[in-house]
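Workshop exercise sheet. Pairs work together: one partner reads the sequence aloud, the other fills in the structure field after running the prediction. Swap roles for the next sheet.
Pair: D.N. / O.F.
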Amino acid sequence: MKKKIAVIPARGGSRRIPRKNIVDFCGKPMIAWTIEAAVKSGCFDRIIVSTDSPEISKIAGQWGCEVPFLRQTAADDHSPVSLATIAAVHQAAAFFKEEYGVVAQMMPNCPLRQESDVRAAVKNFLEKQAPFQISCFKYGFMNPWWAFKLEDGGKGRFLFEEALQKRSQDLEGLYCPAGSIWLARWDSLVSANTFYGPGQIFFPLSWIAGVDIDTVEDLEMAQAVARTAYKNKV
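Structure field:
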């Protein structure tokens, strides 16, 4: 029977936040939050961290995750993360001599998704029998219907002018992809070479579970949210 594998891609380099994947996040390395969510969910037969960094490898191991090898390809900051995940699964299949049917990709810079979010996402993916599933969250107070481009002289060019004629409560909800947990059938992933493949569906999470940290400001905001929303974990 083919197994379910979760890959946590954690490249060593980071320009905006040095050592981002292992920076302190409410008392433990940021990557530890993702490892714990994956392990506690009980959804996967194997969980591995894909990294080019011996330091990240050591820390991931200390938090209970397997790092059987270092990343050999897609370790630069230009390669799509999907390629790193695909390469890691190929390596894992050869290393462990296993076959995988389902692949999950869980980004370590999305530390606020919980094990319950992972279980709900995997359950929906298996029930819908989709080839790909991308996590997302609904936009809140930053309403994208009111987005505009700021041009020279302070002039604004609205992207959705027709939306300005409607009340906010009459506008459709819009969603944003989040790196919290992406799922794919392994054969579909190999064929498409990306999680954005034919037949993809989206699975909404709360905006907290979808928080994505790329800048110092993101990090400070996410820590404040964690201390409020997850008091028992920080």
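Discussion prompt: The mean pLDDT is 94. What would you look at next?
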